[in-house]
Amino acid sequence: MPTGLDSLKHIVVLMMENRSFDHMLGSLTAVDPRIDGITDQLSNPDTTGGVVTPRPLAQFQGQLDPDPDHHFPAVDLQIFGGDTSPNRVANMQGFVKSYFNQQQDVGHSQKIMYYFAQSQLPVLTTLALEFAVFNRWFASIPGPTICNRAFAHYGTSFGRVDMNPIYVNEPFKNIYDRLINANPKHTAKVYYYDTTSSTMEVANLLQNEPELFGTYQQFLNDCSTGNLPDYSFIEPNYSDHDSDSGEEVANDQHPDHNIQAGELFIASVYSAIKQNATLWQSTALLVVYDEHGGIYDHVKPPACTPDQFTASANDTGAGQPFAFDRLGVRVPAILISPWIPKGTVVDGRVFDHASIPATITKFFLGDYSPRSPREKSADVFIEPNGPAVDPARNLLSLAAMRNDCPDFDV
Amino acid sequence: MTLIHVPRPDVKSAMDSDRPVNALLKAQIQHLRDAERNLPLRYRTDIYVNAIKTEGEAADYIRLVTTAIHEAHEAAAANRGRGIAIAAAAAARPSRKGARASGGKKKSTVKRGRKT
């Protein structure tokens, strides 16, 4: 049995907000050509017919204001460039046009093509180069936050493509209930940053099962005391607010929140795990973004297994229904573990947020039903541990744990 | 082992609790408003959510309702526990003709929520 998988006891998922792969990690193609990021072949037209190329001019804050539109109709424009014909093909040519629609300012609309230089994001880029970066991890839906985060919890959004509350009325249980009600029982927790930031999973989890939640401070305590659950899902701080300990700067990286605060937060999560040696060797951490936030990415989202739901044309607002048969725009995703070879680039496999409950379920519970069609067909980022593990798919493949993993001065 | 320096944001320039709420926070407020409607009356706020315009105001509301949801569940759990204890005590008591079915009224141990 592979040593890494045999050692694995905890899986932690940190889901950040609203940044595309090219925007955050596109610079890394210059460092490692296997990483599918920014090249000089990429561009978008602006509304004057000018050609806009990606440039490493992204700023930590104050640049993407107003918040780029990432609701379903806007993302449809971004992906298809405004083509609404029946046999249209994704071309990723509508990002500048979409941002122009918000302010009618040609110069400002071009900023949607900006990306970060590697040196600006020392945490995210270091983790991507040190562990496993996914070339094809997409948002689950070409739409906004709530429906995309639902895929991470339930493996479906129950037919929703918007920000309205999603009430579970189908037989697909959330991943936490699957775990805590299993036999043998597993443990699971959602850690929101603090009570003031709270969670995006209000309608079902917080409202009905608040005992599933802890604060980020509790996560830190659970790491240091070795009491981390089998599965943890971490939410960042979604707002600038005052707290008992002082001013809390939003660290979710949602535009126009500060990017460096998010970098610090990611480093803090990583360090909390790494500082407990027992935990470090038995934990895998996935850092992933919920959706692209309207920001440019060049990879065309692929088709996928349709879910059993259809959003009507009225619900999508894009003039046509949606059968959940195509993924959203690509987002950054990095899997971290001392059992992963340095410089792993996961290529040729497609993941989305349904891969999260799919992986957790298969790893901890094995066969489980019922699950949504999308979750059943989603690839897993950690192989179920057993004699039939495919070495070519197992990312925690080292025979011995690494002792050269980086530290951050948090 | 490499030690990577993580630059800190300038809190003074990064922090803006007067920033208008974004679509995400608006949705979160709406979800909490819906959840609040399901709470017992004594846990509900009297905040008019359509008047929330800034992140600071949103944060205040989110904290109040998140706390209230936890308190309401804790109170309900305490009530459930008390019901089970009473039932267990009743079942354990030997049957005696003419005996009172229960003792005097006990002081409630239910944690009271905030009244607003």
Describe the model.
The complex is a heterodimer of chains A (410) and B (116). With 410 residues, chain A is of the alpha/beta class. Chain A has helices spanning 3-7, 21-25, 72-80, 95-103, 106-109, 122-130, 145-154, 175-180, 202-208, 216-225, 259-274, 277-281, 313-316, 355-364, 373-377, and strands at residues 10-16, 44-45, 51-52, 132-134, 137-138, 188-192, 213-215, 231-234, 241-243, 246-248, 283-289, 333-336, 344-346, 351-352, 407-408. In chain A, a hairpin with a 5-residue loop joins strand 2 and strand 3. In chain A, helix 3 crosses helix 4 (95-103). The two termini of chain A are 35 Å apart. By secondary structure, chain B is mainly alpha-helical. Chain B has a domain at 18-88. Chain B is 49% helix and 2% strand. Chain B has helices at 11-14, 23-37, 55-92, and one strand at 3-4. In chain B, helix 2 (23-37) runs parallel beside helix 3 (55-92). Residues 96-116 of chain B have low confidence and may be disordered. Chains A and B meet through helix 6, helix 9, helix 11 and strand 15 of A and strand 1, helix 1, helix 2 and helix 3 of B. Strand 15 of chain A pairs parallel with strand 1 of chain B, so a sheet runs across the interface.
Short description:
The complex is a heterodimer of chains A (410) and B (116). Chain A has 15 helices and 15 strands.
